[in-house]
């Protein structure tokens, strides 16, 4: 496979990974909220937990994705296998 195909496959897999991490984070945080925090709160304020859990899951998945991407770029030579997503508009320097 060439660099462009590698980049497209990587973007698809990374997007799928991010979605899976978000869903798993949401389910785990929702279960933790339901078991630990919801019984302690009054009935009127317990409904606010769902949006807070959703936002927390998005933030947690962002942090996990960022660390996973850093580990991936340390392990593999990104320039060797992938095409840049955004190319420079400047023309190359001539000697």
Automatic annotation (TrEMBL):
Q: Tell me where the transmembrane regions lie.
A: 7-33, 45-65
Per UniProt, which keywords does this protein have? Answer: Membrane, Transmembrane, Transmembrane helix
Q: Which domain of life is it from?
A: Bacteria
- Protein name, UniProt field: Leader peptide processing enzyme
Source organism per entry reads: Gracilinema caldarium (strain ATCC 51460 / DSM 7334 / H1)
């Amino acid at each position: 496979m060439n660099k462009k195909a590698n980049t497209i496959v990587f973007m698809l897999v990374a997007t799928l990974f991010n979605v899976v991490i978000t869903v798993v984070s949401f389910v785990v945080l929702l279960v933790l909220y339901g078991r630990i925090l919801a019984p302690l709160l009054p009935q009127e304020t317990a409904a606010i937990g769902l949006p807070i859990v959703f936002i927390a899951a998005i933030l947690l998945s962002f942090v996990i994705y960022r660390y996973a991407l850093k580990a991936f770029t340390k392990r593999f030579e990104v320039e060797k296998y992938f095409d840049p997503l955004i190319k420079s508009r400047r023309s190359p320097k001539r000697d």
